[in-house]
Design a protein that fits this description.
- The chain has eight helices and seven strands; from the N terminus they run βαβαβαβαβαβαααβ.
- It is an alpha/beta fold.
Length: about 260
């Protein structure tokens, strides 16, 4: 089996100051890749958040960019010498019952989660077209499962998965692989806050997720690193689900069937 290492790679990660993005950045650095950390914060404001990335050995750079703006993404990727891979991870989620949806709630999520990944993918493909490389998007298990109160988010992630597949077909001849990771309910962001404030939620998650409990950001990062590595060179157009089995819908609290 191929050792999972990323030595010699130079990988850019959008949304890299969030919980999952940070875990991905740490993982690619741990495996030997240089990393470009891309996020919305100005570099001066992000210095404290960047400290944990220092001292890993590989080089760490930072670029401020809004993924909704193609020119900003292109500028960030242009600052990466010898770019070999891009992780399109930036995203937001806003819960609202469908009748309470507004055009703003819709457009905010579509613009960031879908158009932002289009911009990231296009900028990445333009940089990688002459030499090949890998693009990995962060999707979601509810990109293919309708979830109440998450119409815009589900639509954005479902659209992202189709975008990924079309990119994979169009770019294969250029040596560019395109895949996605679909996390389940991760102990990060809003889910972590709910779990911390509502122990009953955490207990229910332990019962209904077959592998028990919320996922860790690091588990998502392991999957991203795999898709960036030589261990996955025959994979493109794939959605790698990392959800502890929650999409299997285990509603029972035990195995009695009750």
């Amino acid at each position: 089996m191929t050792d999972l290492r990323l030595d010699g790679q130079s990988i850019a990660i959008t949304g890299a100051l969030g919980d999952i993005g940070s875990a991905i950045a740490h993982e690619v650095l741990r495996l030997g890749a240089d990393a470009m950390i891309i996020d919305l914060a100005a570099e001066a404001d992000a210095q404290g958040l960047l400290e944990p990335f220092r001292g890993h050995g590989p080089e760490v750079r930072y670029a401020q960019a809004d993924v909704r703006d193609l020119a900003q993404v292109e500028a960030a990727l242009a600052a990466v010498p010898n770019l070999t891979g891009v992780v399109g991870n930036a995203g937001i989620g806003i819960m609202a019952p469908f009748l309470d949806m507004t055009p703003r709630i819709w457009s905010d999520q579509i613009d960031t989660n879908l158009t932002g990944c289009f911009n990231t993918g296009l900028a990445a493909a333009r940089r990688l077209a002459g030499k090949g490389g890998s693009v990995v998007f962060t999707s979601s298990w509810i990109g293919s499962v309708p979830w109440p109160g998450m119409a815009a988010y589900c639509a954005s992630k479902g659209g992202l998965e189709m975008l990924m597949k079309v990119m994979a077909r169009d770019l294969a001849d250029l040596g560019i692989r395109v895949n996605a990771v679909a996390p389940g309910i991760v102990n990060a962001g809003a889910a972590r806050k709910v779990a911390e404030e509502n122990p009953e939620f955490a207990a229910v998650m332990g019962q209904v997720i077959p592998l028990g409990g919320l996922g860790a950001p690091e588990q998502v990062a392991h999957a991203v690193a795999f898709l960036m590595s030589d261990a996955s060179t025959y994979m493109t157009g794939s959605v790698l689900t990392v959800d502890g089995g929650c999409s299997l819908f285990k509603y029972e609290a035990d195995d009695s069937g009750t």
